[in-house]
């Protein structure tokens, strides 16, 4: 065997082995939950409450909720990224509340002391349960805003296709999870991914104003993917707000809960015609 063929065969074996790792261990790589129980909501922020939402498959999920200020018609349903739990997102809750909007910060199954194991199908049930709970509390659909971060952009975009919100906020959206995998490993491995989150395709079916917030130094979700999601929404005729945080990485605070996110939320709420929010 020539040296060139040996190198080629070795590279093929390495790719096949890597594909096997991704196939068999993909959900443990995709979802990195902090399973510990977060602090009590009342000990975190004034007006924040611990509540439980119940999924269609019988999961009791602990979440945090704060109602909107008097006069503000917006409530934001937050679908987090793939790591941590709600205890690490106090800054995000504060950012949303600074606009006067209400907020429900979801923890998925398997996160934050919740039972179960995360998957795309499971997360879809979880976010629907959170939406149903808000509607049961009297939150009107014309004031309901979905906010997803990272993998949560796939969760809320799918929800938005089925149950349109007043507005959609996508922080660090991917075109799809297979595209993230391809970019991360530098070889085409996305075809083995089962939980696909096709944000770029599904955002075209959303009939609401969309805000996209991205960091220009994001090494997990390439900024070009987030821009492609914004372009897809524009091509579908949607009103699109884009905020870029120069030099921000994927989990930088300035991106996750800083002025750009707050500004994008305010702008898209205004575009949706929701009154009374600062």
From TrEMBL:
Chain ranges of the AB hydrolase-1 domain: 75-179
Keywords carried by this UniProt record: Membrane, Transmembrane, Transmembrane helix
GO MF annotations in UniProt: catalytic activity
UniProt-listed InterPro entries: AB_hydrolase_1, AB_hydrolase_fold
TM region positions: 6-25
Keyword Chaperone in record: no
Pfam families in alphabetical order: Abhydrolase_1 (PF00561)
Entry protein name: AB hydrolase-1 domain-containing protein
Organism of this sequence: Cellulomonas carbonis T26
């Amino acid at each position: 065997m020539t040296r060139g063929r040996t190198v080629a065969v070795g590279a093929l074996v390495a790719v096949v082995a890597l594909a096997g790792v991704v196939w068999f261990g993909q959900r443990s790589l995709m979802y990195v939950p902090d399973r510990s129980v977060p602090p009590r909501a009342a000990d975190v922020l004034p007006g924040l409450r611990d509540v439980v939402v119940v999924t269609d498959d019988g999961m009791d999920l602990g979440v945090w909720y704060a109602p909107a200020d008097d006069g503000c018609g917006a409530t934001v349903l937050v679908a987090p990224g793939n790591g941590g739990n709600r205890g690490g997102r106090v800054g995000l809750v504060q950012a949303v509340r600074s606009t006067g909007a209400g907020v429900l910060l979801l923890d998925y199954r398997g996160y934050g002391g919740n039972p179960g194991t995360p998957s795309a199908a499971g997360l879809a049930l979880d976010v629907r349960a959170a939406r149903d709970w808000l509607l049961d509390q009297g939150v009107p659909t014309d004031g309901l805003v979905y906010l997803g971060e990272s993998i949560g952009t796939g969760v809320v975009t799918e929800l938005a296709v089925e149950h349109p919100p007043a507005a959609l906020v996508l922080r660090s959206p991917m075109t799809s999870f297979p595209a993230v995998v391809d970019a991360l490993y530098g070889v085409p491995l996305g075809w083995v991914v089962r939980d696909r989150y096709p944000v770029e395709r599904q955002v075209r079916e959303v009939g609401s104003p969309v805000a996209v917030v991205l960091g220009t130094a994001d090494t997990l979700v390439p900024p070009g993917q987030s821009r492609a999601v914004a372009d897809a929404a524009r091509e579908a005729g949607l009103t699109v707000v884009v905020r870029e945080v120069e030099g921000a990485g994927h989990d930088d605070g300035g991106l996750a809960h800083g002025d750009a996110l707050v500004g994008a939320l305010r702008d898209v709420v205004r575009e949706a015609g929701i009154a009374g929010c600062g």
